């Protein structure tokens, strides 16, 4: 009653043993593919971690670098500006990690929060009544009167270009892991399971426990079983090319590191522009939002914060160099994996599975 290992000679196999053999080949094939995938997956996961760590380090530096602008140049508003700065960099981090947000909305939200502070602490430093309604009116007015001129839009343009490649790379790396996980758990067809049993275990039914499959026979069986996986070859090569393009984009003119550290200068230019146009802005705001209460003299010391040093530039340079080196190492490794899906059958038929150094091997029906 054998279904797979039918043979003219007497056999020591039963139908139940054939079923056990089918379960065994499914398990073995999954383990074999997982072993092949391990190094590739390990490299991608390792790069995702390294990329995120280096990126977070750059982000922290850029945030401290930006905060120090307020602490040194605009001390009257430094304490209140801390939260909008923090929110801006949190939004940038979330954008790169793939959340449904845009660079433009993050930057414009930041400038919406910044304008009430610039207006009440720098342009009209005597304002005492900064109620919620008045603050909200200033936020909404910012969108109409554009107090920061072209600088807010320039910041959107520059950061969108540089952060886009980082966001795409982050998503592409996650996609790579998804593809590898899918190939690991691809179900074997019944025909494939039978072919693998015929190749690996049917010789046992004849008492030939030491004989192993012929190389050509193994390749034919594995290629048939893994046809759906090898179909990924063209797309995988395209995927590697895309990774290469994205890493080059990140290192090219729209450099992530330069863009992040340039945020401080862009904000400074925007604030200076608003201060230069202070009288016109005040006239417009008074019409739209009314005239707030004012007091003579200086602001209270509550709004002055001690100047703290920004993170040392050396930390940034190290993070920058680290990110560049990791990019290079990773992309060189990935380029070597171009043929990963095309050569999977050859790699599974390598090693102990087949008979290489002997004149006899199993061809699926007999010893040859």
From TrEMBL:
<keyword id="KW-0472">Membrane</keyword>
<keyword id="KW-0732">Signal</keyword>
<dbReference type="GO" id="GO:0098552">
    <property type="term" value="C:side of membrane"/>
</dbReference>
<dbReference type="InterPro" id="IPR001863">
    <property type="entry name" value="Glypican"/>
</dbReference>
<keyword id="KW-0654">Proteoglycan</keyword>
<dbReference type="GO" id="GO:0005886">
    <property type="term" value="C:plasma membrane"/>
</dbReference>
<dbReference type="GO" id="GO:0009986">
    <property type="term" value="C:cell surface"/>
</dbReference>
<comment type="function">
    <text>Cell surface proteoglycan.</text>
</comment>
<keyword id="KW-0336">GPI-anchor</keyword>
<dbReference type="Pfam" id="PF01153">
    <property type="entry name" value="Glypican"/>
</dbReference>
<keyword id="KW-0357">Heparan sulfate</keyword>
<keyword id="KW-1003">Cell membrane</keyword>
<keyword id="KW-0325">Glycoprotein</keyword>
<comment type="similarity">
    <text>Belongs to the glypican family.</text>
</comment>
<keyword id="KW-0449">Lipoprotein</keyword>
<dbReference type="GO" id="GO:0005576">
    <property type="term" value="C:extracellular region"/>
</dbReference>
<dbReference type="GO" id="GO:0090263">
    <property type="term" value="P:positive regulation of canonical Wnt signaling pathway"/>
</dbReference>
<dbReference type="InterPro" id="IPR019803">
    <property type="entry name" value="Glypican_CS"/>
</dbReference>
<protein>
    <submittedName>
        <fullName>GPC5 protein</fullName>
    </submittedName>
</protein>
<dbReference type="GO" id="GO:0016477">
    <property type="term" value="P:cell migration"/>
</dbReference>
<dbReference type="GO" id="GO:1905475">
    <property type="term" value="P:regulation of protein localization to membrane"/>
</dbReference>
